[in-house]
Amino acid sequence: MSLAPLLSIRDLSMRFTKPRSLADAVARRPRKVVSALNGVELDVMPGETLGIVGESGCGKSTLARCIAGLNRPTAGDILFEGESVVGLKGARRRAYNRRVQMMFQDPYTSLNPRMTVRDALEEAITVHGMRSGAAVGRRVEELLDLVRLPEGAADKYPHEFSGGQRQRIGIARALALEPTCLVADELVSALDVSVQAQVVNLLMELQDTLGLTVLFVAHDLRLVRHVSHRVAVIYLGAIVEIGPSGPLFANPVHPYSRALLAAAPSLDPAKRRRKPAIAGELPSPLDVPPGCPFHLRCPHAGEICRREKPALRPAGAGLAACHFAEALPGA
Ligand SMILES: Nc1ncnc2c1ncn2[C@@H]1O[C@H](COP(=O)(O)OP(=O)(O)O)[C@@H](O)[C@H]1O
Ligand code: SF4
Ligand SMILES: [Mg+2]
């Protein structure tokens, strides 16, 4: 079975030019450039949940924002159903913005505190013309039901809900637009662990029943493993490994994926102990190393790694970007 990808991300780069400090301006030093994404290659298949993991500062949110159209990439392309979406304008931009919905860590900041849940949902439904007349009210009830909030929730304000309930309201508002794809950036990271599970399980259920495509960005590997069909590991703004969740977590190929998983708390509490951190520091995205972005921290780095950036190619059950993918111990 070969399906066409819903999203194809091709050689995507995003640089931010930092404002110059006064001292730098006086000394005529060049502006600093942050390379947040450096040639991301990624296919997202329709109906899958793709986890995106990597250390803080690796570019996960920037990638999510580019896909959701909130950042315009500096170079490269994003294809949605085969059509480039980077330069979309007008009605086509609005149609894309409806079909790809971004959800944030704290819906409290994106929910208007002076609007009841009903008003917020009605607004979302009518702005995009999803329903009209009496159907709008019925749709509000349906949405609350989908995210398991009681009917009485409709006439309350955001501050009257707990964090987990607010996250459900955020999901309901995203679903109001009947999206094809949800981009969840650290959706539950701010919630208590017990509440995280409820929200994540709800998301998985909705993904399944509504056939949604979900990009699940998170730094918590256990959550990602639980929800994702496939997982992409990102390092300094590039995908270094991608593959089916089970094999990738059991037998990661790329030395960075191995280090990232080894540094994470064990899934089995009996085996939980202090884990070694990944050797060395994350290089600054102001100064991305040439060659393999991981070579300064990699125990297997050879001469070629300092010169040539490895491309993603078949390795293990998926793809990995490492010159020595086949030759590594245990590969
Ligand atoms: N608007 C911005 N202006 C300047 N630098 C940014 C901006 N957004 C992100 N960055 C930088 O890009 C890099 C990647 O950030 P981000 O995508 O937020 O990573 P993550 O979500 O993986 O923690 C970081 O170095 C961050 O400081
Ligand atoms: S390409 Fe070289 S430096 Fe990069 S991960 Fe592989 S062995 Fe390590
Ligand atoms: Mg982030």
Automatic annotation (TrEMBL):
GO MF terms held by the record: ATP binding; ATP hydrolysis activity
Localization (cell): Cell inner membrane
Cross-referenced SMART domains: AAA
SUPFAM superfamilies in the cross-refs: P-loop containing nucleoside triphosphate hydrolases (SSF52540)
Keywords: ATP-binding, Nucleotide-binding, Transport
Listed GO CC annotations: plasma membrane
GO biological process terms held by the UniProt record: peptide transport; transmembrane transport
Domain ABC transporter: 9-261
Membrane topology (UniProt): Peripheral membrane protein
Family named by the database record: Belongs to the ABC transporter superfamily.
Protein name: Oligopeptide transport system ATP-binding protein
UniProt organism field: Shinella granuli
